[in-house]
Amino acid sequence: MERGEPDDQTAHLSDDLDGLDPEDPEVQAFAAHRDRMRRPNADATVEGMLRGVDDFAQSVNRTGGHRRLVAVAVVALILLGVLYAVWNALAYVIGTFTG
Questions:
Q1: What is this structure's pTM?
Q2: Do 43 and 52 touch, CB atoms closer than 8 A?
Q3: Closest by Cα among 53, 44, 43, 54 to 5
Q4: Are the C-beta atoms of residues 33 and 12 closer than 8 Å to each other?
Q5: Positive or negative: CA dihedral 41, 16, 12, 31
Q6: How far is it, in rounded angstroms, from Cα 64 to Cα 92?
Q7: CB-side exposure of 90: number of CA atoms within 13 Å?
């Protein structure tokens, strides 16, 4: 069971999906999509930001081909930017303390 899913797999199927097979992977995917859409978007909190990263990582794992390549390139560029900022901060600190 993934984080954020209810204990009962059929509990998240609402009245709109009544009559559909709860074991069908397409119905489960649609119900998970509806749950994500109904989730409150508190992106200003740490939990909201981590949820966004988790959603991005899960969507990258489901995709393939050039979309996966683009997602990996975006992550690599973000990491390069972070490394550049850390390197500049360390160089500034070391330069300040060594004169």
A1: 0.52
A2: yes
A3: 54
A4: no
A5: negative
A6: 41
A7: 6
- Residue pair 55/43 in contact (Cβ under 8 Å)? The answer is no
Report the distance separating Cα 95 and Cα 99, nearest Å. 6
pLDDT digits (tens, 9 = 90+) for 51-77: 888 888 888 888 888 999 999 999 999
Classify residue 31 as exposed, middle or buried by CB count within 10 Å of its CB (0-12, 13-18, 19+): buried
Please provide the size of the chain in residues. 99
Report the Cα–Cα distance between both ends of the chain, in Å, rounded. 56
Asked whether 12 and 6 are in contact (CB, 8 A), the reply is: yes
CB 14 within 8 A of CB 28: no
